[in-house]
Specification:
9 strands, globular, single chain, alpha/beta
Length: about 210
C-alpha cells in the first residue's frame, strides 16, 4: 500500500514496487558476490548524545540481535580514537552496511532526525550498500522504505526520516533482502544454499504467473 492524499503516512512503505524489486535484486547481488569467509562489517552511526545515553548499550544490543549472526559491529568508539581520528572517507569503502540511529521527535514517534554527519554517512552508502534506520520501537527499517526530508540550514543540513505507519518487519521484502545481503558467507558450500535468491527475484520485472 502506498501514500494517499487523505493520510500520507498510513502506508507499509514509501517505496514504489519497482524500487523494492530493484533493491532486492541489488541486495542479492551483494550477498552472492561476497567471497566465502569474508568478514561483514556494519557501522552504527549515532550522535554523541545518543552514545552517551544510558540506554545506548541496550540499543546496541538490540541492533546486534536483529542483524545476522557473525556480523562485525562497529561504531565511533570502537573504530576511531585519538590515534585514529574520524575520517569517514578512509573507512566507508570497507564497510558492508550502515545503521543510523536518529533522535526521535518524541518517545514512540516514527519521525527520526539525523545530524549533518549522519546524513553525509548515509548519503555515501545508501546507493551502494544496505542502509537501515534503527527505530527504537520498530527495529531495523531499510531507509528505502522511509520518507526523507532535508532540513535547513543549508550549510549543515540535517535529515528527517519518517517510518511508514503500517511498517511490519515480518512482512518486509526489503528488510529480508538487506539482512540476506549482510549475512556472512560460510566457507562450507552447503551452508550457503540459503543465499540463493528466491525464484520470484530471478526476473524481478517479469509478470507474475496467474
Amino acid at each position: 500500500m502506498h501514500a494517499t492524499p487523505a493520510n500520507p503516512l498510513d502506508v507499509e512503505t514509501f517505496a514504489e514496487p519497482a524500487q523494492q524489486r530493484r533493491f532486492a535484486t541489488a541486495m542479492h547481488r551483494l550477498g552472492a558476490d561476497r567471497p566465502p569467509g569474508a568478514p561483514v562489517r556494519v557501522y552504527i552511526s549515532a550522535a554523541p548524545r545518543t552514545r552517551n545515553n544510558p540506554k545506548w548499550e541496550i540499543w546496541l544490543a538490540q541492533i546486534t540481535e536483529e542483524l545476522p549472526d557473525g556480523v562485525q559491529i562497529l561504531h565511533y568508539s570502537s573504530l576511531f580514537s585519538e590515534d585514529r581520528p574520524y575520517d569517514w572517507k578512509a573507512v566507508a569503502d570497507d564497510l558492508d552496511g550502515l545503521v543510523v540511529v536518529g533522535k526521535q521527535k518524541r518517545p514512540g514517534s516514527r519521525v527520526n532526525l539525523l545530524g549533518p554527519i549522519a546524513r553525509l554517512e548515509l548519503r555515501s552508502l545508501v546507493a551502494r550498500k544496505p542502509v537501515l534506520l534503527y527505530g527504537h520501537n520498530l527495529g531495523l527499517i531499510p531507509v528505502i522504505d522511509c520518507q526523507s526530508q532535508v532540513l535547513a540550514p543549508e550549510d549543515t543540513p540535517r535529515l528527517k526520516l519518517i517510518a511508514p505507519k503500517r511498517w511490519r518487519k515480518g512482512d518486509s521484502p526489503t528488510l529480508q533482502a538487506a539482512l540476506r545481503a549482510l549475512r556472512p558467507r560460510s566457507t562450507d558450500v552447503g551452508a550457503d544454499q540459503n543465499m540463493n535468491v528466491p525464484s520470484h527475484l530471478d526476473h524481478p520485472f517479469a509478470v507474475p504467473p496467474r
